[in-house]
Amino acid sequence: MSDYKRIESALIHGGIYGDEYTKAVNVPIYQTSTYEQSGIGEEPRWEYSRTGNPTRAALEALIAELEHGKSGFAFASGMAAITAVLSLFHTGDRILISSNVYGGTFRVLDKVFNHFGISYSIEDTTDIKELEKKITDDVKAILVESPANPLLTVTDLEAVAGIATQHGILSIVDNTFMTPYLQRPLELGADIVIHSATKYLGGHSDVVAGLVVVKDEQLARQLAFIQNSTGGVLGPFDSFLLIRGIKTLGVRLDRHVGNAERAAEFLREHKAVKKVYYPGFPDAQGYEINQRQAKNGGAMISFELYENYDIKKFFQSLKLVALAESLGGVESLVCHPASMTHASIPYEVRQKVGITDGLIRLSIGIENIDDILEDIAQAIAESEE
C-alpha cells in the first residue's frame, strides 16, 4: 500500500506503482498466458495468467487500497464480479436485495442461481427495522446499492452492516454509482464491495470490467479460489486501461458531480418535469444518510416528464447526449430503464418499486454543462405534444 493518506494521490500512486524491472512509472501490460518456472515442485509467484498476472495484480492491489480492504479481485465484467460473489452461497441460501437493484443482478439471481437452489427476496432496504424482520434462518446475505439504480434511493449502509453482523450474515454493497472516491462501504462495516468498473472507474467507455474488494482474510481466500476456478478474469490490457482510468477518477468525478448538481436543479425547475430523483437535494429521500456516508450526491439523475411530453421524441431529439446503455463515462448518456437496463425485471415488479415506463435516467458527463443543458432543453421542447 502507498504512504498517501489522501485519495487523490492514492488514485495515482496506490497499489503497485510502476515497474521494478525497468522503473517505468506505469505498470507494463504483461501480455502473457504463462511463465517459465525454475524447477519442479517449487511455488512460483507467477505460473498461469488465469491464476495471476502482474498487470491484473497491480489493479487488484489498487482497488483494495482505495476501498480500504484486505484483497481485491478483477473480473471480465461487473456481472462476472457479481457472479463470483454469489458463488459464495449454497443450495437453500437466500439473499435479500434492494427493491430497485440493477436489472442484471436481478436476472442472474432469478434465471441462473435459482437453478442451484439459491433464492432471493426483493426488499425495501431503506427501512432498516422492516428489513431486519425479513432475516430468517435461510438468509445468508443482504445485497444493496446506495444510491440504487435507477431511482437513486439511499440505504443506510452502516445500519445494514450492523444487522448483518448481528445475524452472522454478509453485507454486500454495489458501489458502482459512487466509487471509492465518494463512498467507502467497507469503512461503514460492509463485508464485500462490488464495482462495475466499466463505469466511473474506467471512465472512458472503452473497457468492460468488474471489481470486488473484501476486508476478511477468509473471504479473500474463498473468492481467490472462485476466481481461479471459474476463470472469469480481467485480461492484462483491460487491467492496464482500468489503472489508467482510475488515475483521473478524482478530477473526472469532481466535474461529473458539479455538472450533475446544475443539471438536477435545471430539471427540477423545468415546467415539463414532473419529478426528479437526485440524492443531492436536501429534501431527497435519505439525504442526511447519504451526506453522512458519501461525499456528495453523485452524478446520476433520474426524472419523469409530464404526460403531455412524448419521451420517445425526447430521446430521438437529443443531439449531444447519447441514448445508450451504461453510465459513468466522460460523455453524457441517457437511457430508458424500463426497456433497457431493467427490462429483465417483470413489469409488475417494476411498477411496484417505481420504475415506470416514463422514467428517464441520465449519466451526466464532463462536457460543458451549458451544452448539456441546452441539448436537454431543446429535446424536451421537441417532445411536447
Task: Tell me what you see in this structure.
It is built from 14 helices and twelve strands. By secondary structure, the chain is an alpha/beta fold. The chain folds into two domains: 7-247, Type I PLP-dependent aspartate aminotransferase-like (Major domain) (Aspartate Aminotransferase, domain 2, 3-Layer(aba) Sandwich), CATH 3.40.640.10; 250-383, Aspartate Aminotransferase, domain 1, CATH 3.90.1150.10. The strands form two sheets. Strands 1-7-6-5-4-2-3 form a seven-stranded mixed sheet. It has a five-stranded mixed sheet with strand order 8-9-12-11-10, covered by helices on one side. α3 packs across α4 (103-111) and α12 crosses α14. The longest helix has 21 residues, at 249-269. It starts with 6 loop residues before the first helix and ends with a helix.
